[in-house]
Design a protein that fits this description.
The chain is of the alpha/beta class and 186 residues long. It contains 6 helices and 9 strands; from the N terminus they run βββαββααβαβαββα. Helix 1 packs parallel to helix 6.
Length: 186
């Protein structure tokens, strides 16, 4: 195997609709962990995956909450996961409105490459998981193994044509984690 200097595999995780609900919150206090998310992250970590959180938080641009408040909330979120044996890194945040056409919005590779640089991640051995087309298209943009949908949040429901865009569609992050781990050779 060619030495790239990037030794870690990753499962890049979307936040809203993948790890927490509701998808659209009026306050950071509204966010609640989706059942099974902690176990999914813990399983991925145990198999050597780094789990960066890449998220679009347009509510920052809309002044629903500040970027500083979001980062502070995220630090508490990380601590809660960590106390349960699960570790996520980040956040890698696009704070812009969809209409801003910024360089950091999904499916652009910018935030994923920042995470890869910070954590020595080999993008070609990594996965992207989320509930939107932007998440799935990000997997292609970064040269990942593939993108997986979760049906939580805005993910496709059974039989929707959007299912075909993804390598796998799971009911939740735990189902996707199991699917990824079944395909991995440690």
């Amino acid at each position: 195997m060619k030495h790239t200097g990037r030794e870690h595999r990753a499962v890049f995780l979307d936040l809203n609709g993948t790890l927490v609900l509701p998808v659209q919150a009026d306050s950071l206090d509204e966010y609640k962990l989706i059942p099974g998310a902690v176990e999914a992250v813990r399983l991925l970590n145990q198999k050597g995956f780094v789990c960066p959180v890449v998220t679009v938080q347009s509510r920052i641009a809309k002044e629903v909450y500040s970027e500083e408040a979001f980062v502070q909330w995220f630090e508490g979120f990380q601590a809660a996961l960590s106390s349960n044996g699960a570790k996520v890194v980040g956040p890698y945040v696009c704070p812009h409105r969809t209409s801003d056409a910024c360089a950091c919005a999904k499916p652009q590779a910018t935030l994923y490459k920042q995470a890869a640089d910070a954590h020595s991640i080999d993008l070609s051995r990594s996965w992207v998981v989320g509930d939107t087309e932007g998440d799935i298209r990000s997997a292609l943009a970064i040269g990942a193994l593939g993108g997986c949908y979760v049906r939580t949040g805005w993910g496709p429901q059974a039989g929707e044509s959007r299912e075909e865009e993804a390598m796998f569609v799971g009911d939740d992050l735990l189902a996707v984690a199991h699917w990824i781990l079944e395909r991995e050779i440690a």
